[in-house]
Amino acid sequence: MIFDLHCHTYFSDGILSPEAVVARAKARGVAVLAITDHDTIAAVGIAQKAAGDAGISLISGIEFSSQWGRGGVHIVGLGVDIHSPALLAAIEFQEQSRNARALAIGDRLSKAGFPGALAGAQALAGSGTLGRPHFAQYLVAIGAVKNINAAFKKYLGAGKPADVKYQWPLMDQVIAWIHAAGGVAVLAHPAKYELTRTKMCALADSFVAAGGDAIEVISGLQPAAQTEDLLRIANERSLYASCGSDFHIPDQPWQELGSFGRLPAHAKPVWELLGYNQQQSLTLFSQTDALVSVGVP
Description:
Layout: E1 2-4, H1 18-27, E2 30-35, H2 44-54, E3 57-68, E4 71-78, H3 85-111, H4 117-125, H5 132-141, H6 148-156, H7 171-180, E5 184-187, H8 197-209, E6 214-219, H9 224-236, E7 240-244, E8 281-284, E9 292-295
Parallel strand pairs: 1-2, 2-3, 5-6, 6-7
Antiparallel strand pairs: 3-4, 4-5, 8-9
């Protein structure tokens, strides 16, 4: 069975609809999928229906931005109650923070010679969560840069003209939001923060102290040695292990749905916290109709 517990739709910075993500996951052999858009659950209800029609199981999820030390880290919430007042208030807070940041980015890009950047990025985001990738897409669309990577290297990345730092809520607060919504808190893609191993362990210790539950020991395609090291960090702290593609865009093999290594046998899989058992039945415990109970063939 393939569990892919981290992916995105066009409601955040992916490009596919929830229905298309579910269909692609089904075609690629994923049995259990979590939609984890950035700071929004807008895709979850749509994806639940599509998953039911496709015969795969869907976990309600979200990926929150948070602050640890001087840097940002992402925390995934799995099995959250999508009607939880605490979760909805958290999403509203994050939305206001993102909007403030987007206004500042738009202002800086305007001063850099792109006065239509904010409106262009908003048009590309549509009803989704507005973020830096939409500004990057706009810069590509108007021919200012050749591709999204170039947009970050020239304008949006650290130290560049439209780099806007923002103080996200502390990791402790984000984990509390997830737990208040009945979810499981997962430290997302820790290897992508480019930390030394000493700092990685310090991050893991802070995560545990804040009440975190699991670490993504696999995020897309990665070296087996990296998986083993992250699993060692998790096991030493009695944390569960999660895995996911972090899918955003089709045909990127390093982040394709379901295309990543399986968890090693000595991992404690996070889906045990979500009710999975060895009889291959899955019960996702939630406080409302985010509850799904199905048999997995």
